[in-house]
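User: I'm new to structure prediction. If I give you an amino acid sequence, what do you actually give back? Let's try with this one:
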Amino acid sequence: MVIAVNTRFLLNELEGVGYFIREVFGRICRQHPEHRFYFLFDRQPEEGLALPSNTSVLVLSPPARHPILWKYWYDIKVAMALKRIKADVFVSPDGFLSLTTRVPQCLIVHDLGFLHQPAAYRTSHLQFYKRYTPRFLKKAAAVATVSAFSRQDILSHYPVPPEKLSVVYSAVKEGFRPIDPAEQDQVRQKHTDGKLYFIYAGSIHPRKNLVNLLKAFSLFKKRQQTNWKLVLAGRLAWKNDAFLTLLKTYKYRDDVVLTGYLPEEELVKLVASSYALVYPSLFEGFGVPVLEGMRCGVAVLTSSGTAMEEIAGSAALYFQPEDPASIAEQMMRIYKDEDLREQLVARGRERAAEYSWERTAGLVWDAVMRASESVDRVDKVDIVDKGG
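Assistant: Good question. You get back a string of structure tokens that encode the predicted 3D arrangement of the chain. For your 388 residues, that looks like this:
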């Protein structure tokens, strides 16, 4: 078979979807050398990108970084490329697909955050998601998502046949692991002047709820009178005016460390050297940083509701993300109770071991096969060529 994969998020500074693509499709390509894979980029990939021998790169310009260009890229450029390479199936891991090709498509939708947290999205992006997500779900021959929570969320909002929608889960990069105490001391000296700290890992935008995390940390500092710090490890993404405004006048600004985007190796060390990871996101389809903390051997505090409770189970402490006092309460609880922290670390290690990229790759491959075998396929016919 000829399998085309949308890899436009396989960038140098990888985040959620980009890591998913790298880990899953690198494995799938190596596990299925009998098939030919084409990775479709919207810009020249970074130098040094290691690809299996059965993989080719196609760069389809222009870069698709705006809703108008998204539409053009998927419906014109991707559709034309699928026809040219005689693709048997197209896999799109970013929730978008082509509405003009008749090549069977496997769509991966990570979450419906735009429905639950619309204020966290740019207006043009929000309108695109609302308009086209139901069309993408209808068009796809097979759909996959990353948790049972997300699957039920999709089924409750859109008329997707349940048999069409499978769960493939996500996982954590193998590099996340505990580090020895001496190295932890070095990391703390570098980033927090040797002080213990809570860490948030992920990009900084409204859905991640960092304004409430700052308010919670303020309550924690007032009540505990401690020199602990809060490290926010991730890039400033979008719509951060409220966060940046609060930070300017924040009483404990000297105890908040913003690292910006970090290479994976540095992020692992920073997470593994923390006292606990706090992930206060308002909505997630999976919540990868929760498992990253567990794999690094630190206690995890996270939001109740959405997917995190499914993913973490009894291996985390939960708070109400809309309530800074609830977040602060759990921060104080883990601060005071070393035995509880050790219990969470042990449970977290077991919980994180249940998720692997090997399992994810196998489940995604099953979804790709379902798409390729779809009965309503019309081989190699492209509506674009008919003036559609």
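You can read the tokens as a compact description of the fold. Here is one thing that stands out. Residues 375-388 have pLDDT under 50 and may be disordered.
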